[in-house]
Amino acid sequence: MTVTTTPTLEGRPIQEYLGIVTGEVIVGANLFRDLFANIRDIVGGRSGSYERILRDARQQAIEEIQAECGALGGNAVVGIDLDYEVIGDTGSMLMVSASGTAVRV
């Protein structure tokens, strides 16, 4: 299934708009990952563990919109928007949300 942030697909005209599809993934922070990330903040460098969590959460959110699109009979999602939000009383959770328009091309 084609997924894109653009509103159209070059050379593939949209035959039907099927509606908005969304996917949300909420991941909790891990005490040890936080500890090592804080150490990295002090000494410098990238936090590979957080980058991996973000990448996995983003992929899961995209997979959710693909599944929702398929259930509607679509074969592409256009206009994808990705958002990241820290949630929870202590900011210990991260939400990754993806939305787009399911279409048939």
TrEMBL record:
The record's listing under SUPFAM superfamilies reads: YbjQ-like
Q: Which Gene3D superfamilies match?
A: Hypothetical protein apc22750. Chain B
The cross-references to InterPro entries, in alphabetical order and at most eight, read: UPF0145_dom_sf, UPF0145_YbjQ-like
Q: Which domain of life is it from?
A: Bacteria
Q: Which NCBIfam families match?
A: PRK02877.1
Q: What family is this protein classified in?
A: Belongs to the UPF0145 family.
What's the name of the protein? UPF0145 protein GRI58_04775
Q: Which organism is it from?
A: Qipengyuania algicida
